[in-house]
Amino acid sequence: SVGSGSVLMELDMTVSANSKVLCWFISGETDRPDSNDNPKTIIRVDGTAISASTGTNHWFYDGDSGESNFRIAITQSALSGTLSAGTRTIEVYCDVVYNFQNQNEGRLQVMEIGA
Questions:
Q1: Paired residues of 49 in beta bridges
Q2: Using an 8 Å Cβ cutoff, are 92 and 110 in contact?
Q3: DSSP 69-95
Q4: Are the CB atoms for 102 and 89 separated by under 8 Å?
Q5: Rounded to two decimals, what is the model's pTM?
Q6: Of 28, 84, 74, 68, nearest to 51 (Cα)?
Q7: Per residue in 56-114, pLDDT tens?
Q8: Torsion sign (Cα): 80, 84, 85, 88
């Protein structure tokens, strides 16, 4: 499971009854000083995880290769189960706090899939 961390991105979306949401997240370049730890991210709908607690993480470089920080892009995707009608809170949660680098903003794309 994902430990104590932070919500990286969040949005509210109104969905129809019996639909699902397909979510895709990419962080852009992130930075965690002096760490080689692999981040664990999950996508949640109304606080319930719809993805595993590990994402696909692309490593740019780390302190072992002459740089002082560990820089990565985090990607994650998930498909929810069937939802009831109403406004849902969709969020990407990470077990650690990362700093976004070089003005690269994270992106969360969500698509509703009808019944």
A1: 44
A2: no
A3: EEEEEEEEEEE---B-SEEEEEEEEES
A4: no
A5: 0.75
A6: 74
A7: 555 555 555 555 455 667 788 899 999 999 999 999 888 766 655 555 567 889 999 98
A8: negative
